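Hi everyone,

Forwarding the result from last night's run.
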Amino acid sequence: MEDQRFLESEWDYCLVLDACRYDVFADVYDEYLDGTLEKRRSVGSSTPEWAYRTFTDDHDIAYFSGNPFINDLGIPLNELKWGASCDYEWTASEHISDIHDVWKTDWDDDLGTVPPEGIADAFHRNQDAVERADRTVLHYMQPHAPYLSRGKGQKLKQIQKGIREQGEAEENGGSEDDGGLLSSLSDSVRPKIESRLDDSEFAQKAGLWLELDPKDLVKDGTRVTALSMYEENLRIALESVSELVDELDGDVVVTADHGEAFGEEGVWEHHIETYIPALMEVPWLEVE
């Protein structure tokens, strides 16, 4: 298996599916797209790590970002109060020439994410930017949770809100309270919850449970339930991607920033610098 070689490869348009693991993609992609599929090794197990290790120079790219970690706010990853949890002194706007914050402009509050059509709409609205840039990246949030059929995204909503408010606070020269999922708990209850939310399988599952239906968890268990919803999210994204691909004039690649874990080696979801196959093996589809 070769490395992803994201920027070294030849393409005019690269469509990034966030948290898309190779095996699930390989099972379903040919129902939506034609092309040559390879398994490649990502440079990171989470979006902040992938971005930090991929975009190291100055890149003439029109980047349509559904992911709040790749933004035009000018805030380094290690200063983001929400979700990055890394020491990377990397700022997207210092390396990518033209970032479109689709996570702000086309966010769906009911879904708690940017739906696939939001990326397509932003792309259509900004054709002048596409024509100016050397290459174009469209970074979809799916198959990453929240799961669209539920329409109750919570975890990503907290990240989006926190980063947006931090950017506004930076512009205004003020500061914002971190807030978040624990902020509404009483001082007596919060320590008990935090004591369980350490770097453990329980803590990782707790984040995933926010996005799943309790009835399904009881009936089928976490892995079966999550994988089913994950595949459905991927199919929704691929349907939208297939429609957009028909419009694109040039070489098109579909890939991912990292994968997603469903209990492999005790890991759930995706975490920074966690180098297991479920997170590091990603699709590389050169579309016909």
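The radius of gyration is 18 Å.

Cheers,
N.
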